[in-house]
Amino acid sequence: MSTPVIFDPMTLPSDDNVNAYTFCVELKGSRWFLQKGKMIAYYGQIDFNGVGHGRFERLIRTSFHSPLHASDWVVAEGSGKMLLADRAFDVNSFDLEDGNLTIRSGNLLAYQPTLALKQSIVPGFLTLIGTGKFVAASNGPVVFMEPPLRVDPQALVGWADCPSPCHHYDHGYMTGVMGGLRSLTGIGGTSGEEHQFEFVGAGTVLLQSTELLMPEQATGAVPHEPGVPGGGRPGGGGQHGSTPRMPGQLGDIQRRFGL
Amino acid sequence: MPFREINSKMVEAVVGPGQKMYSQRGAMLAYRGDVSFTPNIQGGQGGLGSMIGRRVAGEATPLMTVEGSGTVMFGHGGHHIQVIDLSGDTLCVEADRLLAFDGTLQQGTLFMGSQGGVMGMVRGQVTGQGLFTTTLKGHGSVAVMAHGGVIELPITPGRPVHVDPQAYVAHHGDVTNKLSTALGWRDMVGRGSGEAFQLELSGSGAVYVQASEEKL
Amino acid sequence: MFRLQGSKTLAVDLTGDAVKAKNGSMVAYDGQMAFKKMSGGGEGLRGMVTRRLTGEQMVMMEVKGQGTCYFADRASEINLVSLHGETLYVEASNLLATDAGLRTGTSFTGLRGGASGNGLFTTTVEGTGQAAIMSDGSAVVLRVTPQYPLNVDPGAYIAHQGRLQQHFQSGVNFRTIMGEGSGESFQIRFEGDGLVYVQPSERNTVGGDV
Known about the structure:
The structure holds 3 protein chains of 3 kinds.
Chain A: E1 6-7, E2 16-19, E3 22-35, E4 39-50, H1 55-63, H2 67-70, E5 73-84, E6 90-104, E7 108-111, E8 115-119, E9 125-138, E10 143-145, E11 149-151, E12 156-160, E13 166-169, H3 176-185, E14 195-199, E15 204-207, H4 252-256
Antiparallel strand pairs in A: 2-3, 3-5, 3-7, 4-5, 6-9, 6-12, 7-9, 8-9, 10-15, 11-14, 12-15, 13-14
Chain B: E1 4-7, E2 10-15, E3 20-24, E4 28-39, H1 47-57, E5 63-74, E6 80-93, E7 98-102, E8 106-111, H2 118-127, E9 132-146, E10 150-155, E11 161-163, E12 168-181, H3 185-188, E13 197-210
Antiparallel strand pairs in B: 1-2, 2-5, 3-5, 3-7, 4-5, 6-9, 6-12, 7-9, 8-9, 10-13, 11-13, 12-13
Chain C: E1 2-5, E2 9-22, E3 26-37, H1 44-54, E4 60-71, E5 77-90, E6 95-99, E7 103-108, H2 111-116, E8 121-135, E9 140-144, E10 150-152, E11 157-170, H3 174-177, E12 186-198
Antiparallel strand pairs in C: 1-2, 2-4, 2-6, 3-4, 5-8, 5-11, 6-8, 7-8, 9-12, 10-12, 11-12
């Protein structure tokens, strides 16, 4: 039986993992942005204040669509050592040096104010730009891979430096007579792998082992202007977002014969 | 082809032309190369007979065939994965715990109810799995999921191991199983310790137990 | 006697003696074991009254026999604590098993418990022996000394031991009322000398969203 390591303010690491699920941030009169409710303990004198929730700030929130005002961010300010964690998910810190990284909103836990937080063109993702440290939570340790790669949408955590992914649809098994039968009758169901995100180029893709997503954090509404993907008038987006017909979507034959 | 563990929740397998692999539908996380995923009507080998057997059992094993040329990463729901290598023996595993396995393994179903009559029925209800379990036999690798990872407990003749049915994941070797009860009249009246039903495994082999009583 | 098999399973070697464990947490055993349900809160009349008052959910069973018994609960991480005549305070839902020689009881934690949604009572484990506590994710053990008091989110608190005073801190101020709360308004402040166990996750707390 091994005695667990006991930490005190001297032995807690600064800005590093304590264990796979807990991260320690050292504040020396500085500040960090973090998601509401993710601080579990701290030594020293630290103040926590909400961002963008006061009555007046709500006015700003509706005029600007920045993620900082859409979701529940908190500013931690003061001196001491603070422990962060999120529902026993794996947490890891990453350093960006004049770089950019796009991450799913639900996976971003905390970041230094030197980084700028922006909404990504891909809905549900946030982009961090600049130089600084940030902490991400994931279901299981994050795996880094390099393109070319196709990823199950639910396994994607984020990507750095490479261009945004495209949608890839795979219906190879639907060709031929058997394929035709499958799509008409819905027999055999689907493989569950019809749709993936495809990455090409130079960069890194971050994956997690899950088909269960962490709850989405609001990233802010996209302004309804023509030309903005996801926000344009219906019809303006064309094929964007509409998934092709899946087998068993099914049972066209059934519908035809009124069964 | 063997599975390589990337981390405790993700495994990687290389698929080559002519080789086939079966995995649970939707378990693919990412892949490189030219790989196709085809839903499997019969759920593996066994043909019509096994399909009927499965329907009777009410056990759906939604599998897909993975073939082509490339590398595939598997994982599901963030559950821990254990890779078990078989060298000729048989592995019995709960169907919904199977993540992926070599196409060269022979797949079948084992009727657990046959051992113990009424007790078998009861066991089926207790584990909630239905009366059938999937068997895999041959030489190859199997990736199994569990909530929180598994511990492997050896079974030796004369030292049978008792397992909480809800924590049971799989077993291999020459093992017989039966449902045993530690029922006293108190348990009947509903004030028992909650350990009333146990799965007793005896013989020679190993059983994989998960650190939880949750169904996946 | 208590050992960890991996980080989520507790293995206990018994030679005719007994352990107390959370009801239903046995996952496997070899040899001969008998399981008996026990009532929580303590023995006798006082125990019964305590249970009524607290509505305490701590349900333990006694396991006795020869062989090795394996315990686990919802894949939670397990930490072993050795007690030498002291008292360990632990959230009832976080206690997995104790040596049969340790005395378990309940203690009134006062208003902190009510507002944090953790219940008004906490379980105490007293004596000399080993106890196993569980956490959602590997727990972190933090030392509290007179110069370094510690603030903890109530939902992350699992257990503590030593000579510690707890104060329930409420950071409700003008801003909180204006709806600009930080989500960290309720905290427990520990002062004195001792150890606090925290888990990297928050149980639901009533005050959590303020």
